[in-house]
């Protein structure tokens, strides 16, 4: 564990500050100078095209997404019936015009893409903003496509408001450093940023360490190149994508929708919990009903370089991995393809899977029938399993795909890794690097030694997370945001916040939820869901949903120490009979639909 100074950074700094106001990073100045292809050779051509088009892209960005134009004024908001495929009947799409820079009116405006699913009945209580996480996840669709499901989880008396945060989805300006998603895919194709880190089985072998250090040198050069391209194509527009600005957008749009005195209501998952923690600490007197689910440690997010996150954030990853294997053993070969007999244990299956991963380090598997033919490497296979741990409902199909790979056909696994890439450009980096307090550039040796510690003492998946959660390289970030919130994180809130954590969340461990609860004290309450998977939507829980509905209805908090069971199994028994009331069955179905909207599962 780290020292108390880390977890209470904002608290101690506030005690040292005579003003007692929120602290912002004012002395950190970064230099401003600073369809995947089969053929890797095409990457060089596309990057050359990207640089050649930089002037054109600059003109494009500054011509309208950076400042949407004279036809828009700050405070404009417009709605129309959604017409996109998959939109729910009655859902509305629209936008709000907000200041591009809340500290410089001359900077222009931003256009925030919105979706709305209106409250039912005459007892409307206001708006609830929804965020699916990421960063990089577009949230407009949560209302436009799944508003009815979220309303069933939250309360019919609220408008559901989905929004695409700064730089993401349909919001303008967009983060677009490369000419197209294909150009970005070509740039990272078959590099460590796409295929992952291949880790040898002997973590104390100096040769393994040297190999990983060279991969880290490659990764650093790739990040530096990407960010220099981004500086060339987007310039200062990159400054406006951070979470502090997103929190101000929610505050601003709440006033447009519900009035200047309205309270802010919010439900955020995964990275959306970072937005939630910024919101309640930047606007503590405006907190209405706020729920964060699958909690990221916002203090570390803002103040530690990303390579130091894993030792704290992966503490539940291997717990979920072992649960996957144990559940597979319990149901046996009839339902889990990785099981080979009815009397083997989860440890037996895990050992067989790890042996296969070890062999891939020495001999990658040829995969000629994949959508993009390539090889299944140790790093790619580990990335596939990591994604599976976040989604327990996928475990039967994941087990089948991985068993096929172990039999010599890696098609489903390689396609699965490829399909999991949800980013089209550097929209995630534009958030995380604008948020992260600048730090001295670590050497590749420092990074790898930290990651080797994680691999030996915390989780087998430490280096896989570095690739699946691409927040690295911020030492090369070329711009400084107008605002970077760094605490304090322990404000007394007008209304308490509800925190939801799973017991075995592989991405955001329960320790993070406990940390936020301890930091906010009586201004929060922690609800625990007894399940694997990322966020409570990973497996439906009637208990969790009813607690959340009660909280949104009138602020009722669950009893301290409440632990909610789940109402589904990763491997449902074929002959099992579940008796639910009509109301409870609706809750389960709505939770599954909401999970599909958030995670695509």
Describe how the helices and strands are arranged:
Layout: H1 4-7, H2 9-16, H3 41-52, H4 54-63, E1 77-81, E2 92-99, E3 109-117, E4 126-131, H5 140-144, H6 147-154, E5 158-163, H7 181-188, H8 192-195, H9 206-234, H10 243-258, E6 264-269, H11 272-282, E7 287-293, H12 298-303, H13 310-313, H14 317-331, H15 346-362, E8 365-367, E9 374-376, H16 378-390, H17 395-406, H18 411-419, H19 427-435, H20 444-457, H21 462-468, E10 497-504, H22 510-520, E11 524-532, H23 542-554, E12 563-564, H24 582-599
Parallel strand pairs: 4-5, 4-6, 6-7, 7-10, 10-11, 11-12
Antiparallel strand pairs: 1-2, 2-3, 3-5, 8-9
Helix pairs in contact: 3-7, 4-9, 6-24, 9-20, 10-11, 14-15, 14-16, 15-16, 16-18, 16-21
